[in-house]
Amino acid sequence: MENKTENKIDSVMYSYATDVSHLEEENRILKETMDHLKVELNRLKSNPLMVCEIKEVMGKNAVIRIPNGNSFFVDISQDVKKIVVGDTVLCEQKNLTVIKKIAPSKKFDAEKFVIIDIPKLRWKDIGGLTNQVEEIKEVIELPLKNPALFKRIGIEPPKGILLYGEPGTGKTMLAKAVAASTKSTFIQIVGSELVQKFIGEGAKLVKEIFQIAREKAPSIIFIDEIDALAATRIDIGTSGEREVQRTFMQLLSEIDGFNNLGNVKIIGCTNRKDILDPAITRPGRLDRLIMVPIPDEEGVKSIFKIYSDRLRIEKKINMKRLINAMKGFAGAEIKSVCTEAGYFAIRKNRNTISERDMINAIDKVKSEDKDYDAPSYMFG
Q1: 221: which strand partners?
Q2: How confident is the model over 132-161, as pLDDT tens digits?
Q3: Are 303 and 169 in contact (CB under 8 A)?
Q4: Domain total of the chain
Q5: Which domain holds residue 354?
Q6: Rounded distance, CA 326 to CA 333, Å?
Q7: Which element (helix H / strand E) includes 266?
Q8: Residue of 58, 91, 130, 302 with fewest CB within 10 Å of its CB?
Q9: Predicted confidence (pLDDT) per residue in 273-298, tens digit
Q10: Hey, is 345 helix, strand or coil?
Q11: What are the backbone dihedrals phi and psi of residue 183, each rounded to the nearest 5 degrees, phi first?
Q12: What radius of gyration, in Å, describes the C-alpha atoms of the chain?
């Protein structure tokens, strides 16, 4: 009887000890969890640090530049060791004390605003611009392919060119074709996108774009709608105008700083040459001005042949009639005619494009021009 009682007591005591051990383990886990949550809560309550750039180091102090472009003279924390000009650091927001050095980001902000590509467009894909093609080859292609020739002769090749003319005449195609022929990286940017909201951001973008171009050289920087950035400067005094001028001055500074025998070229593009600031086209900058005109009759024929050769067209077509009907069309409009003619054939569930499809497409493209009173072409 006593043995049974003792066994029962031992069993109860063992069970009690097991429960206590289990509860202690749970308590330890809960305590660790609570401590972790306290640390996380304190971290979430802490003030964020500002990413800044070191401009100058003066013993225990430094001159930093904050993201909006302003500079400040601040203290350096004792925990920060060996910082030099150009380092990226974290600063406390209240008094801007340098707290920590961090690795700089390898990603440029400018990459969000540019198109970086290696075009595959060939010179033979461009029609009606023989003179313009030859001039671009001489000014852009030759210096990139054979810079030693210019060095041997003792002349400096142009740093860039300005393409101007009506919309849709092929300015962008010319820029892409020369990039493809020289196997250059094509960096495309719209001038209006360089004008940013905050002070100094536009100038910073320009600087980064040229830095990207150097890293990816040989390269061509194509600035579309350059008139949005390089229009004649006026003394208005608004913050927006001042920011445009800052960005424009940075662009001029980058162009002036380029090595003439370098493998980065700039191509500007505009529909409004008349409003450009003379500073952008003065000698030593974009001083080669190339007009890209509306194609003449031979040009229309050449461009139409390039695009129509890709189409399945009926053999019996009055080509002269079509060319005359497209008189005054830019290259982009001729391409649009071919595309629309294809749609007319598809709607009729045909496998080839007829002359009627072409005439209807010409009518449609003309009718989309508000300044043009489109005639009606009728078949008997």
Answers
A1: 187, 266
A2: 999 999 989 988 888 888 888 888 888 889
A3: no
A4: 4
A5: 297-367
A6: 9
A7: strand 264-270
A8: 58
A9: 888 888 888 888 888 899 999 988 88
A10: helix
A11: 55, 45
A12: 34
